[in-house]
Amino acid sequence: MIVGVPRETFPNERRVALVPASVPLLMKAGCNVMIEQGAGYLAGYTDAAYHEKGATVGTSRDVVFAEADAIFQLVGTGANPTRGAEDLGRFRPGQAAFGFQRALGNPEALQELARTGASVFAIEMMPRITRAQSMDALSSMSTAAGYSAVMLAASALPKMFPLMMTAAGTISPARVLVVGVGVSGLQAISTARRIGAVVSAYDVRPAVKEQVLSLGARFVELPLETGASEDAGGYARAEDEAFYRRQRELMAKAVAESDVVITTANVPGRVAPVLITEGMVAGMGPGSVIVDLAAERGGNCALTRAGETTVAHGVTIIGPVNVPGMVPFHASQMYSSNVTAWFTHLVKEGALKLDLADEITRETLVARDGQVVHPKVREALGLAPAADAQSA
Ligand code: NAD
């Protein structure tokens, strides 16, 4: 079985789906690897490095698709509205596609990919169970994003982060507020702490408080009724507008006292809640910075513009997109490790053996034999459940 790794085509994407260190693991599972020439270059991985680990280098994208039985991508066709469709003519029946597919966010694109006859696996559908932790690419990318958010904030802030006692006087530490403490929020807290900021954090899920404290940050207590704020999967539930209004009122003081606010609040399947109004921005000190990691999902700040940095009321508001892509070397390394663990879980003796009794297989297989098979994606497309479509 040949695993093919084409170059990523999403605009400005520098990551790659597989790094050289993963090649021997795939070979051990009975697979060969073919990488498209130059695919890893922008992430810091040369063709020679892949070759050294046993991969072959395909001279063109067409060659890689023609030779490979399984295609590893990071930004899959559905997640790549600009150029993803260019690969539709390259996929073929019997081939398998692995990557972020935006299966629920862009089910129409998935349906088109399904029509090529390829089996499609969506890594964003990975169940968040202990057994699948090594395959959890959403967590990997959130980790990279949380780190990068702090780097963005630190370089935009006209202050230094750490406390410094100098002959020229004392520099007081920057005050950072993190709103939303999922995987990226936790990484933002620890990164900001490491470079010396005084950090506080808030999340609607009260279970998070202990984690915030264990990282040496302060938990902002807001007198909000958050009893049922967490669903069975550990995600936040959507709240009504009255809740968010009250949250904004209560958070205004914590926001005003901060030099940096990093927002990551997200409710699965919804646009991001607006937690910082223009009035709250105006209440911050001049030179303060907001980094809105929810920018791609609508933004947690009312003034955020995705992909842009704006200044309003003297406050810099950064709405970054593709934040994990800012650190392509390590983001690729983590993704590669996730996709390899996932793929080798599905491969037995050099061939894909799908056991649909297995939750990891069942939840991540989104299309096969020409049709979309995942119940949630079918629902998103308005299709009736496929009685036996997911059966082997
Ligand atoms: P996410 O990206 O869905 O959301 C980010 C954070 O925003 C969440 O913590 C959420 O509670 C918070 N949020 C939502 N609305 C908010 C509001 N109004 N105000 C403040 N915060 C708000 O989250 P995620 O990073 O995907 O993590 C979700 C959960 O999954 C967490 O409990 C995490 O620990 C858990 N998880 C479990 C595993 C596992 O393998 N068991 C792996 C990764 C994550």
Secondary-structure map with pairings?
Layout: E1 2-5, H1 23-28, E2 32-36, H2 47-52, E3 56-58, H3 61-67, E4 70-75, E5 96-100, H4 107-114, E6 119-122, H5 137-156, E7 164-166, E8 169-171, E9 175-179, H6 183-194, E10 198-202, H7 209-214, E11 218-219, H8 241-256, E12 260-263, H9 278-282, E13 289-292, E14 309-312, E15 315-318, H10 328-346, E16 347-348, E17 351-352, H11 359-364, E18 365-368, E19 371-372, H12 375-380
Parallel strand pairs: 1-2, 1-4, 2-3, 4-5, 5-6, 9-10, 9-12, 10-11, 12-13, 13-15
Antiparallel strand pairs: 6-18, 7-8, 14-15, 16-17, 18-19
Helix pairs in contact: 5-6, 5-10
The structure holds nicotinamide-adenine-dinucleotide (NAD).
Nicotinamide-adenine-dinucleotide binds at residues 128, 133, 136, 139, 142, 179-185, 202-205, 234-236, 247, 264-268, 273, 275.
How would you explain this protein's 3D organization?
With 392 residues, the protein is of the alpha/beta class. The strands form 4 sheets. The protein has an 8-stranded mixed sheet with strand order 3-2-1-4-5-6-18-19, sandwiched between helices. A 7-stranded mixed sheet has the order 11-10-9-12-13-15-14. A hairpin with a 2-residue loop joins β16 and β17. It starts with a strand and ends in a 12-residue tail after the last helix. Bound molecules: nicotinamide-adenine-dinucleotide (NAD). The site of nicotinamide-adenine-dinucleotide has 27 residues, from α5 and α6.
